[in-house]
């Protein structure tokens, strides 16, 4: 089993109607050196300026990004090449990040290498400290700056710290 943290930036709240702008992924292992970065061209004419602004891209820049199907093919290949066993998807906001990655994989490739499920980092921490309202983002070392690779790394750092705190989870 290999663990991946994924972070998505988009130009709206849902895939299909709005577009994924970029995403980052990191293999959860000491050093966090193996990363993936993808930027995808818009799939619709709809976009929310305030959502797109979070990514730091303009609409004109977003229009020059790569074709989504090609990016998802590269991402799948990277996951397959870096995974030992089944890849497991983790994110900060699973309801948001998963929906975009899953939709794009199924729309463009007809499959998702992560299968049908993922895990939310905050829920792991809340369970460990037995407090459903506990905050965990203070465990990040890398600044959360909305570059998806940096954000994925910061969240992967949290998983590594949870393992140090006693979470039974295989990391390489």
From TrEMBL:
Q: Which domain of life is it from?
A: Bacteria
Record protein name field: Exonuclease
The scientific name of the source species is Anaeromyxobacter oryzae
